[in-house]
Structure formats: C-alpha cells, structure tokens
Amino acid sequence: MSTMPASHGHSEACCNIPPVVSKGYDAKGTYEELGGFKTWPKEATKGILTIFDIFGYYPQTLQGADILSTSDSKQKYRVFIPDWFNGEPCPMEIFPPDTEEKQKKLGAFFQKNSPPSVAEKVPGYIKDVTSKYPEIKEWAIVGFCWGGKVVSLVTSSSDTIFKAGIEAHPAMVAPEDAKNIKIPLALLASKDEPADDVKKFEDNLTGPKHVEIFGDQIHGWMAARSDLEDPRVKEEYIRGYETALKFLSKHL
Q: What CATH number has the domain bearing residue 40?
C-alpha cells in the first residue's frame, strides 16, 4: 500500500485526460428519467455505474464521470449516475458537522439514505438499464465517500454483476467487507480514512487489487469537496482518475 504519490507519468490507459476545469465545469452528459445523469460515447459497450457522494450532482463529480467515459484511448465507457436521493442530496452547508444542529441533520440524512438501502436497489437498476441498452455487456462500479460503502456492499455479493469496483475516499471502511469481495477492486483513500482500517481492508481482499493512500488529500478530493482551484488538489484529482482508468483498463 502506497501512502505517497507514485510516478506522475501518464499510463497507457489514460493518456488523453482533457484539461481539468477548476471552476464552472460544463458537463457533457445528459439527464433521463431512467438513469439520472449519463455520459458516454454511444459506441461504448462497457458500463460504469457511479455512486456519487452525499452531495449529489456536483460539477467535480460530473467532470470525473466525463473523464472516465472518454479519456482511455483504447476503451470508452458509458457512465450512469442515478439520483438515489430523489433530488434531495445532503446540503453542503452542514459539512463539516461541527454543531449539534448539523450533526442532527446529517444523522437524519444517513438514516433516510443508508448504504444498504441503496445497495439493494442496484441490481434492479442495472437490469432496467441493460434492458434499454442491451449493447452494454460488462459493468464496473465506482463509488465516492458514502458511495464507496455501497460499492463494498454490492461487490461482496456472490452473484454481483460487476467485473471491477473502485472506491474513492470511502466512508465507513470495514475490513470485514473485503473478505467477500472476489472481483478486482481498487481503494483510493485520503489522509482522513483510518489508515489501519485501510490496511486491514487491503489484507482481506483476495482478488486483484490496488490500494493507495493519497496522503495529503482530504476526504472527498475526487468528488464534491475537491477544491480544483488548488494546484495540488487538481494534480491529485487528475492522478486519482488516471489510477482508476488504468485499473479499469486492466480488469474490465
């Protein structure tokens, strides 16, 4: 497990990541009733289900979806980001939960939107999407923060449809979850996830894996909480998506 940035050379799988927009990103995807936000080149036959963080459709997350969709020079992906919160994501204003009132609001949000409740919906969602887009033959799942826990729950099922999984700065890292994950899985942690739990999670994974701690990044640096106007954050945001693309290229 690495705790420091690796080489910054571009990998073969992700040499075409476009310039990252620091502010005011214009997402390339569209919205539809079935799948929420989606982004893809229509010729793609591999799908990525993205589980966003608790803040929903933030520009940093949507830009990441576009990067995943088209930046691999050899393989394109159709990316789907369902709205699990039905238009009611967690307000950014209550984070960090440093007052009793904020803590109550955050607790109520998690009670209403628990990872297990969303994980239960994933198989039905994939069934609906593949019925509409039968050309998608293989699937990966990517989750951020809260969504990382959903990835653990979904991929630990013995009958999971997913061929690969990626967790970025996952919340609620539980080493026990990893024992039942047999598919290739990458975990990209920040400095804020408990390092001991991340290491134990890595040790319990029995399939192909990539586990790395981005040691100077905060929880959320690849999604809604990413400050892309900070050059170092932007650099590691790009490297995080490069790492994800390289992993998907190898295992999907």
A: 3.40.50.1820
